[in-house]
Amino acid sequence: MFDVDVKADGQVDKAKVRESMIGDREIVSCMEDALRGMSLPGVVTPLRSSEPVSEGMVSPRARAPMGNILVLGGAVSLVPIVLIAAGVTIVVAVTAHVAEEAVEAAGRRRAVQRRCQALLDECLDNVWQPEETRKIYGNKKDCRGCFMECKNHNGVWPDERCPRPN
Quick one: CA dihedral 120, 121, 126, 128, positive or negative? Predict the structure, then answer.
């Protein structure tokens, strides 16, 4: 059983064995090194916004959860890994501990998402550009584009392109 610490970007920061029935320290050390080289974006996915990661089709089996969020909120038990080598079966259990900075960053992203979503809803309620900006931006506001820009600029809505009603 291994514990790993995961930074905000999903990169494994530390990996250490919690419990092992493998008598060979070199194998355990090799497994720790392999875990340290991993990136676990799935671990911080529950902490991210609900924005889709890809546009491709997803099979129903691919939607199965890969971990269980514990009550602590920052730890995930990943699906056990089964290794079979030379007739020996090894089951590896990994618990990922998400760094506090990742939890805080996720909270900030959710706040930005909520703010930008509210501004998007407001934009969609009145999609027409004011007369004075129609020559520059066209007849309709680009609400979706403004929403994406808002999310990418830490919650700052592009008022010049998608003006809010006074």
Answer: positive
Q: Give, in order, the Cα–Cα distances in Å from 93 to each of 17, 66, 82, 90, 162.
A: 10, 12, 9, 10, 50
Is residue 166 in a domain? no
User: Is the same domain home to 37 and 10?
Assistant: yes
Q: Tell me whether residue 158 is in a domain.
A: no
The alpha helices in the chain, defined as continuous H runs, are 25-36, 41-44, 100-125, 134-137, 143-152
80 and 11 co-located in one domain: yes
**For the segment 113-128, what is each residue's pLDDT rounded down to a tens digit?**
999 999 999 999 999 9
CB 91 within 8 A of CB 82: yes
Is 165 domain-assigned? no
Mean pLDDT value across the chain = 75
Residue-number span of the structural domain to which 56 is assigned: 2-98
Predicted pLDDT of residue 38: 76
